[in-house]
Automatic annotation (TrEMBL):
GO CC annotation, single: cytoplasm
HpcH/HpaI aldolase/citrate lyase domain mapped to chain residues: 24-242
Keywords carried by this UniProt record: Lyase, Metal-binding
Native species: Kumtagia ephedrae
UniProt GO MF annotations: aldehyde-lyase activity; metal ion binding
Family to which the UniProt record says this protein belongs: Belongs to the HpcH/HpaI aldolase family.
SUPFAM superfamilies, alphabetized: Phosphoenolpyruvate/pyruvate domain
InterPro entries (UniProt xref): Aldolase/citrate-lyase_domain (IPR005000), HpcH-HpaI_aldolase (IPR050251), Pyrv/PenolPyrv_kinase-like_dom (IPR015813), Pyrv_kinase-like_dom_sf (IPR040442)
PANTHER family per the UniProt record, alphabetical: 2-KETO-3-DEOXY-L-RHAMNONATE ALDOLASE (PTHR30502), PHOSPHOENOLPYRUVATE CARBOXYLASE FAMILY PROTEIN (PTHR30502:SF0)
Protein name per UniProt: Hydroxyacid aldolase
UniProt entry tagged with the keyword Metal-binding: yes
Length: 260
């Protein structure tokens, strides 16, 4: 069975800035991805930072999502090095990189995601080529445009360096981690600092001014709507396990209310 060319238009569409609803996947079973891929979610972020994804799960998960015509990002640590280009070879649409706090962090991220002259990605896009619908030379010519380097802004230091991070060539966008940002801004006191809310408008505005993608994690739909109003277009709505637990609790409650 041939893969649909899910990478062909994805990054250009995301860059145009219409509302894009992704979600974090922490459960590494390709059957779970397959089920989620049949929903109206636009894409997935496989979580190798806090989730249970390993390389084999990314490999299987990208295939499961692709067969439903959906692209997948991978979140992996800034020091994951060559693993970043490896998941792109597996067909990931991009990398969402946590704790990008400095220009040096951003440059390191870009070096693994982009081919020269922007970065130093090594050639070997085994599954990325069929997922792009391009020939090998065609993929080389467009890969830097088709794969996304997204820098997470989730510390005070990142906030201080925001414009410089956004200005790094090859950084396609920023993505707010509201919980870590709150932990950082409050000195470890809270996951829900009021300072985060005021930083949100600033981050989205600076990203837009730089012509780059503004992304964020939203813990619930109301938060996602608020973020969209503030100018975020790339929103990771909740997580796979949250969807499962909330749907189960909602269904159980609906029965108990009536059948008690
Ligand atoms: C955060 O809120 O810190 C995140 O990383 C969201 O995934
Ligand atoms: Mg975080």
């Amino acid at each position: 069975m041939a893969f649909p060319a899910v990478l062909a238009d994805f990054a250009p569409t995301l860059r145009r800035g219409g509302l894009h609803l992704s979600t974090f996947c922490q459960l590494p079973d390709p059957n779970a991805i397959e089920a989620l891929a049949k929903t109206k979610l636009d894409s997935f972020i496989f979580d190798m930072q806090h989730g249970m994804f390993d390389e084999a799960a990314v490999l299987a998960g990208v295939a499961a999502a692709s067969l439903e015509g959906k692209p997948a990002f991978v979140r992996l640590p800034v020091d994951a090095g060559g693993l970043a280009s490896r998941v792109l070879d597996f067909g990931a649409a991009g990398v969402v990189c946590p704790m990008v706090n400095t220009v040096a962090d951003a440059e390191r991220l870009v070096s693994y995601i982009k081919f020269p002259p922007i970065g130093a990605r090594s050639w070997g896009p085994r599954r990325a080529i069929p997922l792009s619908g391009l020939s090998a030379p065609g993929y080389l010519a467009r890969a830097n445009e088709l794969t996304l380097a997204i820098a997470m802004i989730e510390t005070r230091q990142a906030l201080d360096n925001l414009d410089a991070i956004l200005a790094v060539p090859g950084v396609d966008g920023v993505f707010v981690g509201p919980s870590d940002l709150s932990v950082s801004l409050s000195g470890g006191a809270t996951l829900d600092s009021a300072e985060v809310a005021s930083a949100l408008d600033h981050i989205a505005a600076r990203a837009r001014t730089a012509g780059k993608i503004a992304g964020i994690f939203a813990i619930n739909p109301a938060y996602a709507v608020d973020c969209a109003t503030r100018g975020y277009s790339f929103i990771a709505l909740m997580q796979d396990a949250m969807f499962m637990q909330q749907a189960a609790d909602g269904a159980v409650a609906a029965v108990r209310e009536k059948a008690a």
